[in-house]
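Memo subject: From amino acid sequence to C-alpha cells
Keywords: amino acid chain, backbone geometry, C-alpha cells, three-dimensional fold.
Body of memo: The sequence and its C-alpha cells, given next.
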Amino acid sequence: MDRLSIVIPAWNEGRRIASTLQRLDAFARSAAFACEVLVVDDGSTDDTAMVVASFQPSNMALRLIRRTHAGKGASVREGMLAGTGGAVLMTDADLSAPLDQVPRLIEHLGRGADIVIGSRRMPDSVLDPPQPPLRRLMERTFRTLRRAILLPDIRDTQCGCKLFTRGAAQAVFPGVTVSSFAFDCEALAIARSLGLRIREVGIRWCNHPDSRVRPLRDSLRVLLDLVRIRRRIRGK
C-alpha cells in the first residue's frame, strides 16, 4: 500500500477538528506511506468547514467535502467512495481509536483480509478509559439484540475505526443507504453478502464524554434499521 485515505465524518466539530488534524498530520509524518485525509462536513452550523479549509498540513493531503446535513452514514459513504488510496480508513473526529492503532489494522489487511475492523470486545482490546457503567449496559443490551438480528459472529460493529481495501470500499459503499448509526452494520452485511473477508481486531480505545450518540433514541432507531437491513440483504 502506497497511500492511505482517512475519512473523518464531521458535524459541528469546530471545537476539536483542528486538534484532530494536527494529530493526523503528525501521524502522516511518521508513516511509511502517503496519507490523504478527507473531512466530510455534514452540514455543520458552526465553523467546522472554515477550520478545515484554513488548516495548512505539512505531511498529508487534505480535502474538505461539504454536504447538506444527512447523517453520519451518508457522510461516511461519500468519503469512502471519494478516497483514492489503496486502503481507506473510516474513523471518528474524536479519534477514540488512537492513530497508533492503525498499523495493527494495516498489518491484517496485508494478510489477506478485505476489511479489518477495530474492536472493543476482543480478548486483547484495551479500553482506556472505558465508557461509564450506564453506557456499557446499554451497549451490551444493544449488542445482544443486534447479534440476534444481524452479523452474529462479529463482536463489535460500532467501533468507529474500520479499514477497507479500496476495492472493498468501492464494492460496498454504493449499497449503503442507512444514515443512522446502523450504517456500520449495513456496510458489513453487504460485505458479507459479497463474500469479502472481514477480520475483527482488538484495539486500544479511549472513551470521550462528548459523544454524539444519544443512547436511547439512537438505539431504537438503529434496531429498526437493522431489521430493514436484514430484510433487504436476504431479499437479494
Strands lie at 3-10, 34-42, 61-67, 87-91, 115-119, 126-127, 161-165, 198-202, 204-205.
